[in-house]
C-alpha cells in the first residue's frame, strides 16, 4: 500500500533529515560566535585580461571552523543572511576592499576589486549613504570597486533596485551581474539597469570549447555584452583550452584556477607584480603568478 511505502520512505529519510537539520542548527550557533572569535578571513582571486595580466581580484569570504575546518560560503552565507550577520560581514569586506584599493593607489592604480553583495546588505535603508561615506573616508575612486549582484537580487523589486543602483552608479560604483545566465535575467534588465559587467557563470565555461552548446552560449553572452557595451569576466576558467577559447572570443576578463586560486588577501597583495612588471605579459616572465 501507498501508506506503507510512505512510512518506509519516511523511516528511511527522517534520521538523515534530522541530522542535517541538527547540523545546520549547530553550524548556525557556531556562526554566531565566529565573528567574535575572529574565524573569518577575506580571500582574493585574481582576474586577468586576455594576455594574462592581472586586472583585479574578486574578494571571497572564508570561515575557518575550529573543528570542521573551512566551511564553504555556499553553506554559511545563507545562514549569515538568516541571522543578519551578513550585514557585518558584508560591511567588513567592503571596508577592506576600499582600504586595500587606497593602499594600492600609488603602485597599482589600475586594479579593481569586486565584492559580492548580499540582497540584505543592498536593501539596507542607508546603504547608499554608507557607501558614500566609506568612499569618502578612504578616498578611493569609486570606479575601482565593482559590486557583484545576482540575478535574483536584480529581479526582486526591480523598480526599487534600478533606482538604488542608479544612486550608487552616480557615486561612481560599477555593477556586475554574477553567475550570469543561471537565474531569471532577461534582456529587458540588461537594457534597463545601469550595468558595467557580466560574469559568465562557471557552469557554461566548464565544457568549453568541447561542447557545442556551451560554446554557443558563451559566444552569445559575449556578443550581447559587446553590443551593449558591457565588460565581461568569465569565471571558473580551469584549463588553458578554456582560456584560449575565451581570449579568442574577446572576453576581456578571465578568472579561475588556471590563473590562480583564491588566497588570503595579504598573500595576494604580496604576490602582486610590482612596478612595470605588472604591465608585462604573464607569458614573458617566469616569476609571474600563473
Ligand atoms: P561567486 O561569487 O560566483 O564566486 C565564484 C566562486 O567560484 C568562488 O567560490 C570561487 O572560489 C570559485 N571558483 C573560482 N575559480 C574557480 C574555478 O576555476 N573552478 C571552480 N570550480 N570554481 C572556481 P566560493 O569562494 O566558494 O564562493 C561561493 C559563493 O559564495 C560566491 O560565488 C558568492 O556567491 C558567495 N560569497 C563569497 N564571498 C561572499 C561575500 O563576501 N559576500 C556574499 N554576499 N557572498 C559571498
Ligand atoms: Mg562573485
Ligand atoms: Mg559567480
Ligand atoms: Mg557562484
Write a brief structural summary:
The protein is of the alpha/beta class and 290 residues long.
Biggest sheet layout: 10 strands, mixed
Q: How would you sum up the global shape?
A: globular
Radius of gyration: 21 Å
Structural class: alpha/beta
Specify the oligomeric state: single chain
Helix content: 40-55%
Overall pLDDT score: 89
Small molecules held by this entry: ligand C2E, magnesium ion
State which percent range the strand residues make up.
15-25%
Structure summary, number of beta strands: 10
Element pattern in H and E: HEEEHHEHHEHHEHEHHEHEEH
Rounded to the nearest angstrom, the distance between the terminal CA atoms is 61 Å
> Helical region count?
12
Structure description:
Helix content is 49%, strand content 19%. The protein is of the alpha/beta class. Strands 1, 2, 3, 4, 5, 6, 7, 8, 9 and 10 form a ten-stranded mixed β-sheet that branches. Strand 1 and strand 2 form a beta hairpin. Helix 1 crosses helix 2 (73-83) and helix 2 crosses helix 3 (85-104). The longest helix is centred in the first third of the chain and has 33 residues, at 2-34. It is globular. The structure holds ligand C2E and magnesium ion (MG) (3 copies). One magnesium ion binds next to loops.
Amino acid at each position: 500500500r501507498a501508506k506503507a511505502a510512505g512510512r518506509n520512505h519516511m523511516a528511511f529519510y527522517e534520521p538523515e533529515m534530522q541530522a542535517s537539520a541538527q547540523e545546520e542548527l549547530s553550524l548556525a550557533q557556531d556562526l554566531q560566535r565566529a565573528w567574535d572569535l575572529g574565524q573569518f578571513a577575506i580571500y582574493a582571486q585574481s582576474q586577468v585580461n586576455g594576455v594574462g595580466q592581472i586586472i583585479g581580484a574578486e574578494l571571497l569570504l572564508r570561515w575557518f571552523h575550529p573543528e570542521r575546518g573551512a566551511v564553504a560560503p555556499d553553506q554559511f552565507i545563507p545562514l549569515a543572511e538568516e541571522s543578519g550577520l551578513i550585514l557585518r560581514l558584508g560591511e567588513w569586506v567592503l571596508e577592506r576592499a576600499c582600504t586595500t584599493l587606497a593602499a594600492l593607489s600609488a603602485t597599482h592604480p589600475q586594479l579593481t576589486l569586486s565584492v559580492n553583495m548580499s540582497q540584505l546588505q543592498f536593501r539596507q535603508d542607508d546603504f547608499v549613504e554608507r557607501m558614500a561615506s566609506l568612499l569618502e573616508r578612504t578616498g578611493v575612486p569609486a570606479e575601482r570597486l565593482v559590486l557583484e549582484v545576482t540575478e535574483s537580487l536584480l529581479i526582486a523589486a526591480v523598480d526599487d533596485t534600478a533606482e538604488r543602483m542608479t544612486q550608487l552608479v552616480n557615486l561612481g560604483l560599477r555593477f556586475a551581474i554574477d553567475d550570469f545566465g543561471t537565474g531569471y535575467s532577461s534582456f529587458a534588465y540588461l537594457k534597463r539597469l545601469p550595468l558595467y559587467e557580466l560574469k559568465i557563470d562557471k557552469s557554461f565555461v566548464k565544457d568549453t570549447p568541447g561542447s557545442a552548446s556551451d560554446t554557443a552560449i558563451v559566444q552569445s553572452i559575449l556578443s550581447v555584452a559587446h553590443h551593449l557595451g558591457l565588460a565581461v569576466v568569465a569565471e571558473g576558467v580551469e584549463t588553458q583550452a578554456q582560456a584560449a577559447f575565451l581570449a579568442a572570443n574577446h572576453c576581456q576578463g578571465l578568472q579561475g584556477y588556471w590563473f590562480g586560486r583564491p588566497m588570503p588577501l595579504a598573500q595576494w597583495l604580496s604576490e602582486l607584480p610590482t612596478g612595470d612588471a605588472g604591465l608585462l605579459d604573464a607569458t614573458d616572465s617566469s616569476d609571474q603568478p600563473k
